[in-house]
């Protein structure tokens, strides 16, 4: 299963994920978003911004539970930001709670973070070029996928997560340990699957997954003791997740006037820096890049009631409780902290200008003036969106202004040509609009009706009832004041717009025909009655001659009258 996926039935054409994805790693098909794994840098924004909760993160808790059920030796490596994620308890309480879940050992990833920072410092000493830190897996993926030309500047050093796994597996090698990292980052799940370091970390969980697991196990964190022997003695490495944490841990100059190092957080700012990297790197020795603004303390899955400033403060206070770490607890020979980064450039086929113009015309953009660049589709410009269509990432129908114009044009056409009268009324019973057919039915030619109150036109009773109940209603109504018009009036409440719509079906001709038929029936009955009366008078004079003929004649004429009245005639 992919690390990130979409629940298609919940995805509803809002394009918000495209709008917020810095690399547009979203493909739309049949109106539904699909995350393109090879393009994705796992920054997690699509998960955070989706209003329908249609983005799903793969849950790896089951893998860890299997390790524990199989009695394996499992170690938890807690990212330094855990004190902000579990801000209402003491650190030792969390350590003890994890032990109760079955973890044999619980350790702080900060133990390795200090070594990683020192390794970066060593790189600076070895060369004379600007080094980009490699502890943020989102930034790493961003560079090897979208800026492969700068990959030589990416520090060939593993992240604290991987470094800690190497340390722990060496320290507990006799136990053949499983190392489970727990942190605020979705990208860590992808990092552990990179071919260059695959399976060095056995599982990467998020704080959300851990919290859910603790809840399911009915574990109350506050019931555990404050103290834990597994708490580390590290100091500044605990501040690794804040802006400048790596530089501070590696003893770089982090002052505001420093010209040798710079800290850049937030993917957009990192992107702008990389766009002009050849110019920007002049004079720099170290560039600390983090995809989340403010650092890992604002990671996508670090859900905390604390503000960003409060999280930072809590982590710095925790870091000041420790002492300088001596490098490793029981390891005489440290494992290598180096790795390789290989470029994985994303193909970006570009359409010709002619192909681009053809795509633009599909959404009514025939001239540059037609290109609104509104961003509603998720792309900054109409041309960017057209390129995405060419690359198979977007659909032409994603242009909301064009689709709206087409829908309004079509609906206006239908309202204009329908033979039924249509009126729109707001909730104050003021006339908003009416179509030409309604004006013709009521002979309103030349009369200004829009803006008037409905009761100046007709009796508003049925509209008031529908407004009260929000349920449609239909009635046949006679309007003698308007040339004796008869209509069937159906009134509907349009919830989204807050308007009432009345549809008038003209029944006047039908009623006239019914009245004419009634008059014909009446006259026919009258004539038939006269015939019967005259016949009876004649019958009385010649009764002796006609006999049964008179009775048969009366019977036949009576049947005729019943037929004219519309009554059933029995044989």
TrEMBL record:
The 4Fe-4S ferredoxin-type domain, residue ranges: 2-29, 31-60
Limits of the 4Fe-4S domain: 355-416
Enzyme nomenclature, EC number: 1.12.7.2
Enzyme category, top tier: oxidoreductase
The keyword Transmembrane appears for this protein: no
Keyword set, alphabetical order: 4Fe-4S, Iron, Iron-sulfur, Metal-binding, Oxidoreductase
A GO molecular-function annotation: metal ion binding
One matching Pfam family: FeS
PANTHER family named in the record: NITRATE, FORMATE, IRON DEHYDROGENASE
Name by which UniProt lists this protein: Periplasmic (Fe) hydrogenase large subunit
Gene: hydA_1
